[in-house]
Amino acid sequence: MKDDKPPSSSWISKLTGLFTSTPDDRESLVEILRDAESKSLINADGLSMLEGVLQVSQMKVRDIMIPRPKIVEVELDDDIEEILKIVTSASHSRFPVFDDNRDDIIGILLAKDLLQLYTEAVSQDKVDKIKIKESLRPAVVIPESKKLDVLLKDFRSKRNHMALVVDEYGSISGLVTIEDVLEQIVGEIEDETDVDTEEDQINQIDSNEFNVKALTDVEDFNDYFDSDFDDEEVDTIGGIVTQAFGHLPAPGESVTIKNFDFTILHADNRRIRQIKVMRNIES
Question: DSSP string covering 226-245, please?
Fold first, then answer.
């Protein structure tokens, strides 16, 4: 008679077998997962993604949002040629549209909707009569404090791909996409339009708070912050921070180096990915 039980050699059975007791906290669970990776029950990429899932549950929108100065947006009253120039040069698929002021976001313009609108207008020789307002999608607005796992669930259930972020006063402080959230799980998602620049590596969140990619060159970090970190032994600011810890830090761990406070926002079992940086203001 054929045995209906799953084979004991399956990776699920092996992984389940590691749980001889219930993990008491997140750190215990991570240790179990890393033990599974060391025993080849899961590969390094799988471990990295599992750790990313755990990290997402502890992060908030403000930790990963695109800050306001970097948002590419469209003004409702711009003529169609100007809007087309913005859309084609930015290579994004969605653009916030504002009316009287930049906090008055009235909707989201999809590049594909604009293309269809423009094509139809050209065929009817009515380009000068194009009004994008009728083609706008509703804008989703969320607070900076929203948890990333909750946001991802909302994105999936409501089929949204972008949300505008507001601060406690109701002003637009940033923007976040579903890709930004997924990158915290699977790592950097790059395409042919991505270009690494200092501006991409270092994003100012508040007057004295910055999100910095760990792979930022020490030289670029020094130029931006007018600091003097040594780049003879390591090339990146992530290397500087790892040296200071003396071990590969986990998300939430902090260290002070010179007059900077570094807090790990995102890291996996191989390297740091994203760091919050705050400069100590001397009195």
Answer: T-----SS-SBHHHHHHHHH
Mind listing the pLDDT tens digit for each residue in 10-40? 555 555 555 555 677 777 787 888 788 788 8
Contacts 24+ apart (CB under 8 A), 277-280: 277/209, 277/210, 277/211, 277/212, 277/225, 278/208, 278/209, 278/210, 279/208, 279/225, 280/256
Please tell me the class of the 73-138 domain: alpha beta
**Nearest-angstrom CA–CA distance, 268 and 6:** 31
- Fold entry, domain 196-283: 3.30.465
231 contacts 241 by C-beta, under 8 angstroms: no
Q: What CA–CA distance (Å, rounded) separates 103 from 281?
A: 30
pTM, two decimals, is: 0.63
Distance (Å, rounded) from C-alpha 77 to C-alpha 244?
52
Please give the structure tokens belonging to residue 153. Answer: 């669930």
From 136, 138, 118, 137, select the one nearest 128 (Cα to Cα): 118
**β-sheet bridge partners, residue 176:** 163
- For residues 167 and 173, what is the distance between their CA atoms, to the nearest angstrom? 6
